[in-house]
Structure prediction request, 969 residues.
Amino acid sequence: MHFLKSLGLAVTAAAGLSLAAMPAHAEWPDGPITMLIGYKAGGGTDTKGRVLAKQLGQELGVPVKVINKPGGGQAAALNWFKELPADGKVFFFGASTGITLNPHLKKNIGYSKDDYEYCCLVTEFQPAMVAPADAPFDDWAGFIAHSKANPGVKYAALSPFARIIMELIAKKEGLDVNYIPTKGGAGMVQLVLGKQVMAAYSGGIHSRYPGKFKTLAVITSARQAHFPNAPTLEELNYGLNGDAPTVVAFPKGIDPAIVAKLAAAMKVAAASKDMANISKKIMMPVNYADTEAAKKFIDGTTASFGKMIKDSGYVAK
Amino acid sequence: MAKADIVGGVLLMAFGLLLLGWIIPAQTHQDTGAAVPPALLPQICAIGITILAAILTLNALRGKTPAGKPPMMKEWAAMGAVITIILAGAALFKFVHPAVAGAFVSFATMIYMGERRIHLLILLPAGLVLSIYVLFYELLGTAIL
Amino acid sequence: MMEELAAGFGAALTIYNIAFIFMGVAIGYLVGALPGLGKGTATAVAIPITFYIEPLAAIAFLIGISKGSTAGSAVSAILMNTPGEPSSAPTALAGYPLARAGKAQKALKMGLYASVIGDFVSTCVLILSAQTLADYALGIGPIELVAILAFSLTFIAALSGNSMVKGLIAGLFGILCSTVGTEIETSTERFTFGSFDLYEGLPLIPVAIGMLALSEMMIQIGDRRRLEEQTDLLRGSGKPEDAVVTLADWKRSAKSIIRGTGIGIFVGILPGLGASTGSFLSYGMARRAAEDPEAFERDGAIEGVAAAESADNAVVPASFVPLFALGIPGSVIAAILIGAFIIQGVTPGPLMFIEQAELMQGIYASMLAASLILLFIGYFGQNMFARIIKLSPSLVLSTVVFLCCLGSYLQGGGMFGLYIMVLFGVIGFFARKYEFSFVTFLIGFVVGDGFELALRQSIGLLKGTPEAILDHPVALVFWALTVLGVIAILRRKKAKATTEPAPAAAE
Prediction:
């Protein structure tokens, strides 16, 4: 009797121990997972995301569904996402500037970088300052000269950041700029191709129209392969940059094993042929960076954007 | 309809004034430096609504309104019933299960309308939920929840 | 050019491709006819399927959906007074009274013919002149757009129904609702009450479902007796000429169809306007041109149905003009399609014609084939739906309520969309019962957004040089039309007031 009882106890204990030793999500993903995108269907981020989702689905063996929650420059999506349980069922894919930059621009935005756990970086936006192909100047210096000679130069700003960058430049160079608001990249393209503005901020969409745009300067901190002759704003001594790789994130409290699994799957998906094709078409190069690098980037860039905005004297609304 | 118009007109005037005096200033930023302040278009709409509502009320008082049919009791009841059913469905969605919520909405509406044929009361809600499930989860492979 | 098109037909007319076009149009028609579901949902949801099929078939499939749903939405508009899409709201206004008079088949058939004609002609225009039109469309900048939209807004008065004051109130309320969300220029929130769901504004689909479909359901569920009468009438009046489109009907509607197609093409080419704007404008013009505008909504008007349906179907292919030629989406559908295109390896834009010439010709041929297939599917689809409607109302209406919930959940971002639908369902109920035109609300809501942005842009562009507006003849023309329109409205109202004796307060 004693023996059986102890055996029973031992077996139970062993079972209990092994159950406890099993990580909670050893089987992730155990069902369909969802990719959250903070923009409308059809945009650059959304398109990339959908292709990635398809590849991920094949990698992980479960359907990866995409949902769009547009609004407030990803603020709607990020706020909603912040409240979700950290069970690995939903992950966020979007422009990192939503997390690194926007909280500096908007009071009470509702979230901060510490609300999320970062998985990896995937692709890079290629923002630049552009002008119509038939503008009466060929490069950045020419643009500055033209603006000085023609006060009230029209500039299309498709986001608060686009406007701030130009405001800072205008302050430094003593320019008088006329800011024309526009809705998204498509709206900007219309204004430029329709010859309504002399310059614009482009998030990268201009590369879809070869021959119709002049790239005056690039806003990433390094020169862009497609426009090797365009200087960076940093080279031009404005102390500005808009580095914006896309980031994959989970809500805080996620099991690191899940993060690692997704990061590995993302790496494979990002290297797929479909991604390479798309990247070529919409010129958003794939530039995978792993979990460590992602975390470092988010922390570092949030700080540097914060400094940049503060130095500019911009007051968050 | 004159009475309804008077009541409606007064309510709308109140709404317009509420907008101008309270909601618009509270819900729009004032000092933004843009040429057209964000509050301008809403203010124009609110002013327009208030003035038009005043005209509406005056016209009704003077008896100049075209005849119309106010809602019957049955229609009010139906509105209340539909809202209740949908909101109850939302609660079921959150606390029980989405499929139950969907079936409930279909079922409850049929019951409210007087449907008593048991086989339909069961088949239609079940059929709807099942076809949605098959369509999205099996054929399309996209989870919608 | 003809040889390429012929080659395109060759590629398009394979069984494989035709099968997908057929499926797309059929699914689209079904989705359009069902209130609550819309082409936006259908297209977005269908995109993942297209990963596994060839590019031409995939794109033809998606385009088929958008064509089918724009035509199918007339069915529920006419038979149940619940438009399947906002763009069929005018069709409900003019078509439902016809159905109640036993002329449902006539109205449905005219709706289908008008849709197919508008669609086919617009597709031809797209094929023949995409590049030219696109370049022309680029010339329509914010300064022109604000004038065109101001002109569109004057139709609010024209479509007010019985009471212009009420119609204007509804229109202003619509514009007010369009201001909810993040204001573009200053990036500040308006009327979001702290809810980040509202950052992007009130979502159109749940608002439309609530106002157009759910509110009507509330009324119909409440008025069971009238429903039973109606179900009888929907069977048809028994007179054979009420079940077909007669020569007289064609004569009445010919102008509306031609005008509607033209308006649809014009509106479609301009990015930012949609099928709804096209159908409202066309309907408004048809009504203005009629001898007895009041009769349009009272007795129903076949030319009203023709005007609305030809216009909204003409918008769809025309909205691909900026998409194909410039890569700029001209409508919500085009925006969704951009993503689908890119995923299939095609970048919409000027390069498309060079790099993917064969594919383009195949797409064109598929679109033409889709127009013809639409005629076929519409014919049978209508019969099927007309039969379904005759089933017991408790089955039909409860299913519509279910679909409304599903549609607003899918297209409104979850439960939030559902709540918006309920809110606007209540508002719509009051609007319908107290004669505040919900059509004018929709016009204000749909146009208001674009109008404000175009206004801000225009002010920015003209700053410092206001005389530059003289360089924009198109804008000046539309402003003139707007002013003339307002004058005409005021004059008509005055004439009505003097000829109409004040009715005794009947209460």
Observations:
- Chain B has a mean pLDDT of 86.
- The longest helix of chain B spans residues 2-27.
- Residues 60 and 97 of chain B are 50 Å apart (CA to CA).
- Chain B has two domains: 2-61, 73-139.
